[in-house]
Write a structure and sequence with these properties.
By secondary structure, the protein is of the alpha+beta class. It contains 13 helices and 4 strands. It has 2 domains: about 5-80, Alpha-Beta Plaits, CATH 3.30.70.100; about 90-345, no CATH class.
């Protein structure tokens, strides 16, 4: 018999988590409907679990047993389900490690800025080194949650369909290689399209200021959310419509040799705040080549961590779920957001230059 259950999702921190939770649970046998919400960090599940045997929590279709069963599905992605909402506790001790690391990162960034390798001080001249570094930061935060979960799911699906004529190692590596090729190619081509689109609007000083301001605000919201100090701020994070993210996650179930390539291309449209902020900035370049290289550099920055996740058994996905990872990334992102905001105001002539490097 179909029953509807409502559970609290522990570990949910952004709209990408909503998409991932819904996508993974919707594939569980017996479930006919899933609806997750970031407003109260919950998920509503409709399904028939009566055929399942009992568990340590009781009968197979009791709320406790269903929560325990579905938690095993979500746990590899860093989420668990519970009947009662867990009290939000801020682990302030994480800042003892996160703050020095973030300060060290900012210091190194300023050194690179002084050497001319990266450029964030003048928002109109953000270069490829800066985009690469932002990609590195994104890869251990929201990209890990958004793309990392997709990579893990895709790996599991293709592991079930190994071609007997191909060695196990080769059959496991080929989908991952195609995925990363598709991701890099799509960021280069579609980044160029966005850059060229910006030229048709002939963005002036006001238009550039508005888009730069939006980028700064998105980064600040991302950074605050990653700190996991103010739960209410998670509702402010902008994202693309969730149905797009669901369609992208659904692609991993298509059994075709080129599916990993297609999934890699589709990651350009996933609800990742970092990707969206870089896409907005790319619009201000007004150039196909510049837009292509900016987005390609960003994707290249995410490659090291996502590659480790794809080709190794280091368990990096679980390590990245730690509070220290997220808080360090959050502090660095807030730094990027504040500097972008200052640069936007300076570029518009609203305030005088504050920093001189």
């Amino acid at each position: 018999m179909q029953k509807t259950y409502t559970f609290h999702v522990n570990g949910m921190h952004c709209n990408a988590c909503v998409v991932l939770t819904e996508s993974e649970l919707s594939e569980v046998s017996g479930i006919s409907g899933v609806k997750a919400s970031l407003n109260d960090f919950s998920v509503e599940v409709t399904g028939d679990f009566s055929a399942r045997g009992g568990s340590a929590s009781g009968g197979g279709d009791t709320p406790e047993a269903v929560a325990e069963y579905l938690s095993t599905v979500l746990k590899p992605h860093g989420y668990t389900l519970s009947l009662q909402k867990e009290e939000h506790l801020v682990k302030w001790s994480d800042f003892r490690i996160a703050l020095p690391i973030a300060v060290g990162f900012v210091f190194v960034f300023f050194i690179l800025q002084k050497l001319g390798i990266v450029n964030l001080i003048n928002v109109s001249k953000v270069n490829y080194g800066t985009a690469f570094i932002i990609g590195l930061v994104a890869s251990v935060s929201t990209c890990m949650a958004v793309v990392g979960g997709l990579v893990l799911s895709m790996s599991a699906n293709f592991a079930k369909e190994n071609d007997p004529s191909i060695s196990l190692r080769a059959s496991n590596m080929r989908p991952q290689i195609l995925f990363h090729i598709g991701r890099l190619a799509s960021f280069f081509i579609l980044g160029g399209v966005i850059g060229a689109l910006g030229s048709t609007f002939q963005l002036g000083t006001i238009g550039t200021f508005i888009l730069s301001f939006i980028v700064a605000i998105v980064l600040l919201i991302l950074g605050i959310n990653l700190l996991d100090v103010f739960p209410w701020a998670k509702k402010l994070q902008p994202t693309i419509p969730s149905f797009i993210g669901k369609r992208v996650h659904g692609l991993k179930n298509i059994n075709h040799t080129l599916t990993p390539l297609l999934v890699g291309v589709a990651t350009f449209f996933l609800p990742c705040g970092f990707t969206q902020s870089m896409q907005i900035y790319t619009l201000t370049t007004g150039s196909f080549l510049t837009g292509s290289l900016i987005m390609f550099s960003f994707a290249l920055g995410t490659l090291p961590v996502l590659s480790l996740l794809s080709f190794s058994s280091l368990g990096i996905h679980k390590k990245a779920q730690s509070g220290i990872f997220f808080k360090t990334a959050g502090l660095i992102v807030i730094f990027f957001g504040i500097f972008n905001l200052i640069n936007a105001l300076v570029g518009a002539g609203i305030i005088p230059p504050i920093f001189n490097f």
